[in-house]
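Hi P.,

Sorry for the delay on this. The queue was packed all week, but I finally got your sequence through. Input first:
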Amino acid sequence: MSETIWDKLQNVDRRVFYWILFVLLMVPFVFPLGLGVKVTQPTRDLYNGIRAPEVEPGDVAIVNFGFGVSAWPECMPGTVVCVKALFREGVKIIFIGPHTDVSLTWAQVQEQASKDFATKEYGEDYVYLGYITGGDSAIAQLASSIRSVYPTDADGTPLDDIPMMENVDGWEDIELVLSSDTGDWGIYFLTQWQSTYGTRLAEIGIAMLGSSGMPRYLAGNYFGLSIGSRGGAELEKLIGEPGEATTAMDSISVSHLYIVIVVIIGNIGYFASKSRGGK
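Then the structure:
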C-alpha cells in the first residue's frame, strides 16, 4: 500500500514543526502584521481620559514608573503611548518611580518617545524627580508636599529653581496620576490621592493585576485601565502608532493560529490513515 500525504505528515520530525514555529514568531518582528486588536472599554477610557477635553494645556500630571526592567514588555508600551498623548495635549509631566532601576526605565521612555520629547523642554514641560521609597506613607506625604519628598530633581536641582514647579507642590496642583504597576503603587495612590482628594487616577498594569484592577475601574476609582501587552497594543492602535506591544500580540496570534492548524491537520491525518488502513 503506497504511502499517502497523511502518512508522511505523521512521520515528519517534530523538530520541523518547532523550526516552523520559530520562523513564524520572528515574522512580526521583521514585517509587522498589525493583526486586528479590539479595543476594550477600560483602555479606551484611559486614552480618552488623558486627552482633551478631559485635560487642558498647562495641566500637570504625575507618571509613576511602578515597574522595573523585567516588566518592560507589559508596561512600557502603554506608558510610552500615554506620555506621548499627554505631551500632545500640552500637559506637563512629573516623572517618578519606586524601583531602584528607575533610571533605566526613564531612559527607555525618553528613547521610545524621542520625537515628542524633542518638542519639549526640561524644566518647562516635564521634570524627572527619580527614585521614591516609603510605600503608602511616602505617597501620602507626596500629596501634602512634593518638596518634602523631593527637595530636588534627580540631578540635584532644587525644585524652586525649576520653572515648571514654581506653583506646584501638592495634590491640588495635580490634574491626574498615571501609575504603571507590577505591585501596589496604584493602590497607594488610590488610598492617599483618589479616595482622599478625588484626584483622577488611572493604571497601566501587568496582566496579573487585571483581576484586581478591574473592580477598581468599575467602581470609578480608576478612570481607565490598561492590562498587560494586550492593553499596550490597544493603546498603540488608539494613537495610530503600532509598536512593541502590537508586534508581541502579532506573534502570539500567529503562534496560536499555527498550533490550531497543526492540531486540525494532525487529527485529519490520523483519522484518514486509520480509515484507509481499515483499523
